[in-house]
Design goal:
- An 8-stranded mixed beta sheet has the order 4-3-2-1-5-8-7-6, sandwiched between helices.
- The chain is α+β, with helices and mostly antiparallel strands.
- Helix 3 crosses helix 5 and helix 4 crosses helix 6.
Length: about 230
């Protein structure tokens, strides 16, 4: 796959998208305060890179001009504020996954409750397939912002669009920020449902062949919305 083409969107529009979705973190329940981070793939001049939220800035006060640009090749950056401390796995995901156009990292309550137990999300519900596989893996723990964490996240995301991070939170990726953000919310809802099921009984896990049928059906899921977005 080739990298998503953002030629139809301007840099100013993408910067504003990041600001707008950042301000939706708290109301959506995905993250509070300055936790979590967002990025979009962007090419500036001759350099492939990303626009990412800055480190330690409250989303309610963040402006489009605050967002640093980071090059994919060497990790250098430019802008008035330094990038998020989690920039490494953002950059590494874009390098490894050319189809990814945006990344959402957050610390939602229910997903994190599973992550601190180092549990995956199994196929207790067919919507788990929205993340691209039969389950949603939990990456092994590593200190935030480190190369080790990036390595663990990339492995957990193999063949997936979302993963949990042990004792940390979640990562969701998508072709654009809207799809990545929507997936993050879906994973949090699934985590809430799974925890409730565990608290009240023993969830019945769907068999692999059923999840494979769902995954096949999901290949055309949302096609109308995608065509509508392209036409606009």
């Amino acid at each position: 796959m080739t990298a998503p083409n953002h030629a139809s969107g301007t840099e100013a529009a993408l910067r504003q998208d990041i600001v707008d979705y950042g301000r939706r973190f708290a109301p959506s329940g995905l993250s509070q305060g300055t936790s979590g981070n967002l990025s979009v793939r962007w090419r500036m001049g001759e350099h492939d890179g990303l626009l990412i939220t800055p480190s330690g800035v409250d989303y309610g006060r963040m402006s489009a001009q605050d967002l640093p640009f980071m090059r994919l090749d060497d990790g250098s950056w430019s802008g008035p504020l330094k990038p998020s401390s989690e920039w490494r796995f953002h950059r590494d995901i874009y390098l490894a996954r050319p189809e990814v156009g945006a990344i959402v990292h957050a610390h939602p309550t229910h997903t994190t409750a599973l992550a601190v137990q180092r549990r995956e999300l199994p196929a207790f519900h067919y919507m788990v397939a929205m993340a691209g596989g039969r389950d949603i893996r939990c990456a092994p723990y590593a200190t935030y912002g480190t190369e080790a964490l990036s390595h663990n996240a990339l492995a957990a995301l193999q063949g997936r669009r979302a993963c949990l991070l042990a004792n940390h939170g979640l990562i969701a990726v998508g072709a654009n920020l809207a799809s990545a953000f929507a997936l993050a919310i879906e994973v949090e809802q699934l985590a809430q449902q799974y925890l409730l099921a565990l608290a009240t009984g023993t969830p019945v896990i769907l068999p692999d062949d059923e999840m494979d049928r769902v995954l096949e059906a999901f290949k055309s899921y949302g096609a109308n919305a995608q065509r509508s977005s392209t036409a606009s």
